[in-house]
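Practice problem: predict the structure.
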Amino acid sequence: MSPNFRIAFRFLTAKKRAMVMSLTCIVLGVGLFVVTQATTTGFQALFIETIIGADGAVLIQDKIQAGHTSFETEHGSGVNIDTTQDNVKLQAGIEEPAPLLRALARNSAVLGASPVLKGSVDIASAARSDTGRVYGINIEEHLKVSNLGSKIVEGSVDDFRTRPAGAMIGRELADRLLIGLNDFIQVSQSGGPPQRFKVMAIFITGISALDRERIYLSLSDAASVLHRPTGVSYLQLQLADASRAPVESDRIVDEVRYNAQPWQEREKSWLSAFGALQVSSAITVLVFTLIAGVAMFNTLAMIVIEKTKDIAILRSMGYERSDVTRIFLWQAVIVLSIGAAVGCLFGAAATYGISKMPLGNGGISGIFSAKYYVVAWSAWHYVEAVSTAVVMVMIASIIPARRAARLEPGDIVRGTAQ
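Answer:
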């Protein structure tokens, strides 16, 4: 142990109350920073998992063609809208999905691709009528690109798979129609003849917009209801690394000449909201770290005032200005080290405790569903918290340390030291 460190420790223990105040603020600053980042990042991760599980990492739709105009084309009883953007015409839908699926199968980054036929429909039960959206799927392919199988709360995927004219329906839509498992619904489009389906499964994705309007049918049944004997609306893809969806989307566009939309683009507004929430919560808890810096400044400034004679003795004994500076910076390092270590432990304990806390009224739903607070465990939260504390506390410590180093023994003896 160096003499400078021993002297710093003795100076610091002479101001126990001030030291404890600085230490407490550092502990709270580090700990609360970790907790807020863990909770906001946790809910963001749950949101991303939910939307990717429901709608895939990438959606491929709209064939890219050279063009300069916008027009409408009839397809059966449906309408395809062609739009022009930067001299590129996007023809809605995928008329021949088979070649596209074969091309995607050769892409090692793509884990699966599911053709989906989507359309707005009228739905009627014995008690009530409503509107919704039909999603025609091949269930085997769709389970590879979504978490639909794990979201079933009544019935099963096997029942849907084996039952002709079977349907899977969202919980909120089922409640609005006053129906349950094994009840029948009638589905029609644009005043066409209704077709009868039996509810074989009820799902809850946690996303209200999906659960209150979505009905899954087999691809052939959806084609019959929507009067689309050929083609699909889009392909839903799952990637080996969903975070690379923008890069893979650009590559897919170049390969197959279809518009590919990554999940980051689809959910840009929500991701921006989560990012803003992380920043705002970090700024809020940084107040504790700022207070810790101010407290450290006050503590060292008081020590400089009270220990001027001790500083004079040290300088008379041959201590250089750099030695005096190190003595006072060592005091900041001691408090900072203890505060950061205890703050990390406090943050970890608080994060674990929060993860076990139930959310009120049986949980939340809307953009995701959760019964408990969701947290994300990341070493970066601790690195960021400690780094912030180090910067603020050390900056606050430099001024009193330099002031102590400027004191001259002769000035102190004459009482003229400033």
